[in-house]
Design brief:
Helix content: under 10%
Structural class: mainly beta
Radius of gyration: 36 Å
Distance between the termini: 18 Å
Number of strands: 66
Oligomer: single chain
């Protein structure tokens, strides 16, 4: 009698359209159904471990999602419950308490939770969403968290800016000073405008005529338009809206002179230069013949005498001791030169050198453009807003040279975030990269540490959906997929050393992609096709093949959340809209891509995977369930260590129930504390032995005999249907399966049937009693199955918790007739 065996199941669940493809290598490894099993790379399928009930989410009638958090390599693991207008926290699989359950408020609404993208660095989680201002979630202690917005106007932060205005709209400042008025009491640090010039009061007085007061040193010319000043910003055409409030705007003016030369006078007056605006590369140089102390000083508020700080100090003696230094100034400041103790070299008298030998100090900047920064503080009309000056301006004159903040309420916020080469990268309509190591500073400079923008130039209207960092920066938009690479590998990655390459144009879903061992897995817009983006080695071309081609049904209905599990084996998870979890074992280098599904008595709505130092990652779900007719949403952790536990015969700790709890006592004959399962049918493991299922009543169940360890929860079934009994030589022939042998590993009982016929139960040499069972390993007894004659013949094997079912091979005996 012919026999056929399936000895490996790591082809995973395949589409029905693979039924005739017996010519493919996948066919003999694949399954029509692989439900609540986990395929191993070596071919065996193991029962999916169950979940432990921890608590309920805050709202039973609203969805929530989970986000993993790990704040050091050896620290305990945390999960964050992100719900409608709140965050809650879990530590070591228990809610963080501060009297009651600890939580903080958030602005995020239920409908927006699954579009949030998170990026963690140390104790800070950075959060983006296209409809919300960027935020950071900061851990100060396990029970002390703070959700903060990012103030890009606070040093050293600086916003990402949109491209320079290309319209005819001009912007001009006004009303930053009141006009000077006679017979008015003025005090120090009052500012006025007289004949278009700004002045600062340096002595309390009551004004007479301005010319007289100026001559009497009551006023000095002011470098107004500096940090902290307020003004009115006027546009020459419609530009602003109420959403402009809070937005930052950069305004540029060009200097007439890029240098300042300060000559030392014998009278020793003045002994300091006028303030000089500086940013970027600056050269400071002394000259002439003298013996003097020279100071280079800096400030952001030049009108405040107490704000000046010494940056460098030199003692100059004679022409040979003159100094020349080059500075790289990272954010705008004012510089001034000051000198003391002026003497002729060797004379001991006043310095009277003149002409080419006259002592002097020169400051020169490389960039003639002064880029001021304004923050909109109030909305007046479509052409007028109130502003506060963040970075000083050179002039109040109208200019077309202005740039809006790239991300704002008016323009929208970033959807995507990641870190790449020490830069914080944000995705909107383009990709914005911060300065390296300065994650909130996007200021552009003329060096490799500049923040910069990579324009996403494609046909249509591309929007960045995800960013992932590998050796290169991977980019997915709604229209295409590309990579940002370091063009010249011998020079630093930066604004003048990158290349954006578009290799595929499938388009991406709004969910974040997952980087898995050199490959990026992303969903197409409809959320049903999973693709990989990987380098091919052909002129650095990146391909993007579908991982769902042979299982086009597996993401039916679309995916609402994804996660990547590193251990025990690399696995991609996708939460389906119908509440099933579709997963893919992904050992790319071994050519293993095996799909399988996890079902439970309820709907899985969110997943979190937290890497552990041990051999299994920590997986957690939010599950929508029914309890005694009412809807609840639970936080449940997948039980780790089941594979090793079975290897070590730790049968009393087997956990193959969902929403379960473990109760330990001495000789227990009943178990209480089951209110979360009230009215529900439960499976029970008593000291490693299965007893009959029963219904929870009054929060408790009775046990059949005295028990020390009971594990109780919702049962689930493991189902596998291999591909049809078929080969190229037997296609079209009618076949009848007569007998079956199943090779098991550490398994409880199971049943089988042919083509949805009657069930047959596998027999076991060891009958289970009240003692822990001897789980079956090896070949079962031959089971007679009365299959019908059919051209499409398949076997279905099913087990049920709380005992595991682990299958290594299936052997079928069959009869075959003609075609």
């Amino acid at each position: 009698m012919p026999k056929a065996s399936q000895i490996t199941f790591n082809g995973g669940e395949l589409t029905e359209f693979m039924d005739p493809r017996v010519d493919t290598a996948k066919y003999s490894k694949g399954c029509q159904t692989l439900e609540n099993f986990t395929p191993m790379p070596f071919g065996t399928i193991l029962s999916a471990p169950g979940t432990e009930h921890i608590t309920t989410t805050k709202y039973a009638d609203r969805k929530a999602r989970l986000v993993p958090f790990s704040f050091s390599k050896d620290a305990d693991l945390m999960e964050i419950e992100v719900g409608h207008e709140y965050f809650r926290f879990f530590l070591n699989q228990a809610p963080v308490l501060s009297g009651s359950v600890y939580e903080i408020a958030s602005p995020y609404q239920e409908e927006d939770l699954f579009e949030l993208q998170f990026e963690q660095i140390n104790d800070v989680v950075m959060i983006v969403h296209p409809n919300y201002e960027e935020r950071t979630l900061v851990r100060k202690a396990n029970d002390d968290w703070e959700l903060q917005t990012i103030d890009y106007s606070a040093s050293p932060n600086y916003p990402a800016l949109a491209p320079v205005n290309t319209t005819d709209v001009t912007l001009a400042l006004s009303d930053y000073n009141d006009a000077w008025v006679t017979a008015t009491a003025y005090t120090v640090d009052d500012y006025v405008t007289e004949s278009t010039t700004s002045y600062r009061c340096v002595e309390d007085h009551t004004s007479g005529t301005f010319a007289t007061d100026l001559a009497n040193d009551k006023w000095e010319v002011s470098t107004r338009l500096q940090a902290g000043d307020t003004a009115t910003l006027t546009a020459s055409d419609t530009l602003f809206s109420a959403d402009s409030v809070g937005q930052l705007i950069s305004i540029s003016h060009d200097r007439e002179e890029v240098n300042q030369t300060f000559l030392a006078e014998p009278s020793n007056a003045p002994d300091q230069s006028e303030p000089f605006y500086a940013f970027g590369d600056v050269v400071w140089e002394t000259g002439g013949i003298a013996e003097w102390d020279v100071y280079l000083e800096q400030t952001k508020t030049p009108d405040d005498p107490s704000s000046w700080e010494v940056r460098r100090k030199f003692f100059i003696k004679g022409e040979s001791r003159n100094e020349r230094i080059t500075l790289s100034i990272e954010e705008p400041i004012f510089l001034r030169s000051r000198f003391e103790n002026k003497f002729l070299s060797g004379s001991g008298g006043p310095n009277t050198s003149s002409g080419a030998n006259q002592p002097r100090i020169t400051i020169e900047v490389a960039d003639p453009t002064v880029k001021g920064l304004l923050k909109v503080t109030g909305y007046t009309s479509a052409t007028e807003v109130s502003v506060e000056i963040v970075d000083p301006l050179l002039s109040d004159e109208a200019t077309k040279e202005w740039r809006e903040q790239y991300f704002s309420k008016r323009r929208g916020y970033p959807r995507a975030i990641c870190f790449h080469k020490e830069r914080r990268c944000l995705g909107g309509d383009d990709v914005l990269l911060s300065q390296p190591g300065n994650y909130f500073n996007y200021r552009e400079r003329n060096d490799a540490d500049s923040g910069f923008m990579v324009g996403v130039n494609r046909n249509g209207a591309p929007h960045v959906q995800w960013l992932e960092s590998l050796r290169e920066l991977r980019v997915g938009t709604n229209l295409a997929e590309g990579v940002i690479v370091q063009e010249n590998t011998t020079e630093a990655f930066g604004y003048n050393n990158y290349d954006l390459r578009w290799d595929t144009n499938h388009g991406s879903n709004k969910l974040r992609a997952e980087a898995i061992n050199g490959t990026v897995l992303y969903l197409q817009p409809e959320g049903r096709t999973l693709r990989n983006q990987e380098i091919t080695g052909i002129e650095d071309y990146y391909s993007s093949n579908a991982e769902t081609t042979l299982a086009d049904h597996i993401l039916e209905g679309g995916v609402t959340q994804t996660a990547y599990q590193r251990q025990r084996y690399p696995t991609w998870h996708g939460v389906r809209a119908d509440g099933e979890l579709a997963s893919m074992l992904y050992e790319k280098n071994q050519n293993i891509f095996a799909w399988y599904r996890r079902k439970t008595d309820g709907e899985i709505e969110s997943i979190s995977v937290n890497p552990r130092a041990d051999e299994e990652d920590q997986v957690c779900y939010i599950v929508k369930r029914s309890v005694n007719g009412s809807t609840v949403r639970n936080v449940e952790y997948v039980k780790i260590g089941q594979y090793r536990g079975l290897q070590n015969d730790e049968t009393s700790e087997m956990w193959f129930v969902d929403d379960g709890i473990r109760v330990e006592g001495s000789g227990m004959t009943s178990v209480s504390g089951l209110s979360h399962l009230e009215g529900e049918n439960v499976a029970i493991l008593c000291d490693g032995a299965k007893i009959a299922e029963r219904t929870v009543s009054g929060g408790s169940v009775s046990l059949d005999y005295p028990t020390d360890i009971a594990i109780i929860g919702r049962p689930y079934e493991y189902t596998v249907i291999p591909m049809f009994l078929e080969s190229q030589g037997t296609m079209g022939s009618t076949k009848k399966i007569t007998n079956a042998i199943v090779r098991l590993w550490k398994s409880g009982t199971c049943k089988m049937r042919i083509n949805e016929g009657d069930w047959s139960t596998l027999s076991f040499p060891n009958f289970q009693s009240s003692q822990a069972p001897l789980l079956q390993t090896g070949d079962s007894a031959k089971v007679t199955v009365n299959g019908d004659w059919s051209r499409n013949t398949a076997i279905e094997i099913q087990g049920r918790s709380p005992l595991p079912l682990n299958i290594q091979a299936i052997t079928l005996e069959y009869q075959m007739a003609g075609k």
